[in-house]
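User: Hi! I'm working on a homework problem where we have to compare a predicted structure to a textbook description. Could you give me the structure for the chain below?
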Amino acid sequence: MPEQLTVAHISDTHLGYRSLSRQDPKTGVNQREVDVYRAFAQAMDAIQLASPEIILITGDLFDKKIPSIWSLGRAFRVLRVVQEKRKGKPLILLGGNHDTPRMRESGAVFPLFEEIPGVKAVYGKPDIVPLPELNTAVTCVPAAGAIRVAEENYQLEPLEGFRYNILAVHGMLQGMTAYEYSPFFLPRSRVIDERWDYIALGDYHDFHKVSHNAAYAGATEFTTTNIWNERREKGWLWVVIEKGKVPLIRHRTVPTRRVTQLSDLDADQCQSVDEVVERVLADAEQENVSEALVRVRIASVPYSERARVQKAILQSLADAFHVHVEFRVAQRVTVSAVDASTGAGNVQSIEERWRLFVEERKQELPGDVSAAEVVERGLQALSAVSEGG
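Assistant: Happy to help. Predicted structure tokens:
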């Protein structure tokens, strides 16, 4: 029986995520899909070298309910190699809201991974995975079972008779985002509990320590519809559990595609639109945007000048992976955007509200329509009408 229990907690890898139109020259696959796979592979390699007793993958291994053959094959190969090197030590895989079919008979891919030694997949109702060789029980709540916790009187209780009890949940806790109309928002009182030795959370894409014994691992790459608001460091968690002590939770980073937000500009504060372009390029030079995903937000540019400004910026920053130029109207503080702790007004543009709206509803989109595409089309429509204020 180990005096300490070591856990590697990884989540929201979103294999198969695709964005933009660039292809990897070696594989012909969407470059962002390749980026996402590389981050996952590097994270799993680091986890294998760390040699934890348990690996927890808390949901959204894949970005789609039916992943691409390219991503499915590579995910299987990575996990098989890791488990072979670990000699079949426990690896628990939860289904997330992205990769779990609404109807079980529609063909979840998770049973395939149970062909790998040591892998246990939980993707339907909540379940308990006992690990007697570690004197540990892992209570698993995948996305498909989270609604029982959110809306039914389903009690999550540590299992008696085990030295260590871990809770693994894929779901968003109340208060983690601005919008709370989704049935998958979980009451904190039903999840956060001192009795658990560790609570491994998935679905939120930034590392976030919710309490002394609970944490979101965050994602391993940038895959939401608003990557600009995510923390720049992605990775996985190394957790050391010792009975009667606060668990040690450490975030381990993995390399990702760089994401850069240039300084916001207001054209009204410049002498001309040419000065706007000059200031954007000067900022980009300081940031070194080569091969990065870049966003610049510019307010108050006349509609008639936008195409020229955008063309000049894109041509000058051709070495960036992608540049998103977002034209905006001058922001105003609204009564609806108020900081709960200070009472001060917060600026939230209509573009930001649109991104958040799509992010929260993206599971309702048809399978052949990406959230990124919906966001981009909406931003284009907003840009076209913004001169009317």
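For your comparison, note the following. Helices lie at 31-50, 69-85, 110-113, 143-151, 273-287, 303-316, 350-361, 371-385. The chain has two domains: 5-254, 259-388. Good luck with the assignment!
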